[in-house]
Amino acid sequence: MGFARQTGVALLRGPMMILPFRCWPMAMLMVFATAAPAAAFDCGKAQTKVEKIICADAKLKSADDMMSGAYAKLKDSLEAKTEKEALRISQLRWIKQREACDYDGATDVAECARGSTAKRMALLTAHPQTGPGDGTDLTPWFIQKEGKKGGWDIDLNLIRYAGPQSEGEYLFNREAQALAVPALLENSTLGTATLEVAKDRIYGKSVSLTPTYASKRFISALAEVYEDSGGAHGNSWSYSININLDEGRHLNYGDLFTRDVTGILAKLCSDQLITARKVRTEDNTVTLEEGGDIVILSHIKDLERWSFRADKATVLFDPYEIGSFAEGAFTCIFDMAKLKTLAIPGAPLP
Predict the structure, then answer these.
(1) Cβ contacts of residue 220 below 8 Å, gap of 6+?
(2) What is the pLDDT of residue 11?
(3) What string of DSSP letters covers 119-138?
(4) What are the tens digits of pLDDT across the range 277-295?
């Protein structure tokens, strides 16, 4: 999929007004280096644990090199200095986010870096992580604003159809536009625009929209949001945009499964979540919290909570929904082959 002369990049300046979003994980890092990111880092000069792990894994290093090449190609295709600067800021923020794979208690830094690099590659090339990608070209869309005390820091990394041809593609672009609107309406008096930012604080909004699957008939894109608006800690949430491009509408649970399958999916999901909680809490007696079964059922039936890839589907649970905030976000993963045995015949699954 091409992106030359079709990339939307905005470097915003001045006061920023933010509208509220619907309740999703991507850490917001608002302090970053001023030097431009290199096309590919030199393993002979690797310093951080993440860099050393990348250099020790030939496939991971190759993926990083390809991603760096995609960054350089995209940068060369941009003409305006403001566009290049917005892309540079976005890339430096992402590098900081990938370094966060080496957090206290991390069990697989390499896998974290692999997933982060794959998502960045998908954004820079505007190519879906899975699927044939044989529909209309997608294009990356960056909106960046470096925060200053008393204001907002904005980090939006989005994708949209470069030249939408169908109602489904126009619908997807409207969803991407909805993510961008808070940053674009600089003079808005709506939502958190009425929230006064403390003079010694920087509030922030980070949004990433990743195409996880795309074909001529179906697109699934994962939206990950982080917002820090002055509370004890920032809040993150996620949801998925799943659109039946043939019919020009959002995909619904009833398009895929009958009601009698819901209990089966909920039981499979519940078992995964209990196992995950036992690992995270290091307590083999832990189970679901009160009301957890209701949360699981509601998520199973809400396709905005489902993120699709060619080989699997993931049901997303935000922090607080299954365990304590410290336990973080949870997911249930269903093998696509298994899902197809449970789905309605002819259901528009990947």
Answers:
(1) 211, 212, 213, 214, 240, 241, 242, 306, 307, 308, 309, 350
(2) 52
(3) HHHHHHHT--SBS---SSPE
(4) 999 999 999 999 999 999 9
Strand order in the sheet with 306-308: 306-308, 312-317, 330-335
- How far is 70 from 156, CA to CA, in rounded Å? 18
Whether the CB-CB separation of 168 and 243 falls below 8 Å is answered with: yes
Domains of the chain in start order, with CATH, are 1-251 (3.30.565.40), 254-342 (3.90.640)
Lowest mean pLDDT among 29-38, 77-86, 155-164, 204-213: 29-38
What rounded mean pLDDT belongs to the chain? 84
pTM: predicted TM-score of the whole model, two decimal places: 0.80
pLDDT-derived band at 73 (thresholds 50, 70, 90) equals very high
Looking at the DSSP bridge assignments, the partners of residue 204 are 153, 228
Q: Tell me, what's the pLDDT at 119?
A: 87
- Exposed e or buried b per residue across 223-237, where buried means at least 16 C-beta atoms within 10 angstroms of its C-beta: bbbbbbbeeeebbbb
Burial track 328-342 (b if 16+ CB lie within 10 A, e otherwise):
bbbbbebebeebeeb
Residue 286: Cβ within 10 Å count = 15
